[in-house]
Structure formats: C-alpha cells, structure tokens
Write a structure and sequence with these properties.
The protein is mainly beta. The protein has 1 helix and 3 strands. It has one domain: N-terminal domain of TfIIb. A 3-stranded antiparallel sheet has the order 1-2-3, with no helix packed on it.
Length: 65
C-alpha cells in the first residue's frame, strides 16, 4: 500500500480514518491530519479480488441439506 498523503497545512502524514464503497468498483478513502484535523478524500479503483482471499466455510451448503 502507498504511503499516506501529507497534509498541505501542517506538512504532517495523515491517518486513514475510513474506507467506503463508491460507484463503479471504486472506494473512497478518507484521511485526517492528526494536528489540524483537516480531512482529505481520495477515490481509487478497488483492487481485484484474488481467489486466495475468498474463504468458504461450508455453512451455506450444510444449511441447505
């Protein structure tokens, strides 16, 4: 993951405070400066889901039987 954006007011590294889904497979990341509390929002394309990230627990197939 890339480094957090720098605050243009304080020249301090911002902290990621939220990630929300947006339209068309994008996410909106919200960063806040720990000093001046200035908020920066960034929209980026969502990373493709890797097959290794998918976990099947089997509970759905057991409930159907």
């Amino acid at each position: 993951m890339a480094a957090a954006p720098i605050c243009m007011i304080c020249n301090c590294e911002r902290t990621l405070i939220s990630i929300r889904p947006a339209k068309n497979r994008h996410d909106m990341l919200q960063y806040e400066c720990p000093n001046c509390r200035n908020v920066f929002r960034l929209v980026r394309e969502r990373a493709p889901l890797e097959l290794d990230d998918v976990v099947f627990d089997g509970s759905a197939s057991q409930a159907a039987t």
